[in-house]
Amino acid sequence: MADPDEDLTDLPECPSMRDGGLLPRELRAWMVMLAAMGAVEQELRSVVKDRLDVSHDEFLILCLLAEQPASGLRMTRVAELLGRPKTRLTYQIACLQHAGLVTRKSVCGDKRGIEVALTDKARRLLREASGALAKTVTRALSHVMGPDQREAMRGLMPELAGEAEEA
């Protein structure tokens, strides 16, 4: 885990920012994003386990469902959005259902379709944990992304440049 007192100016130059490489700017930015995601996931794992008592993969399912209407999503769509095999997702949904965090129901008119949605318990737990989770994400990103890394991210997400100027 990164040292919370580390000075961001001490971060090394982002290698993906150097000109003359083989990769286009967007691909270099994507590599920076992957590194940042890895750092966030590493720090989030323990907070998610402590606050929600679920695995990181189960947490991703809860987050996806939290951004959907109360009716939920079809399991095939959840698997597609998270890039997970359907068999693995079935196991994770069963764990979440056993914990009282999701419901499963058949889709009307489609015998094979299953829709999953958050329970009120899951919504309450996510609301209660959201502050600590957001702080964990911010802290993890601030420890792996200095000015050069943020510039690399803007190559992939140009709208970040506007936000930085407004802040």
Automatic annotation (TrEMBL):
Residue ranges of domain HTH marR-type in the record: 26-162
Natural source organism: Streptomyces gilvifuscus
Name of the protein: MarR family transcriptional regulator
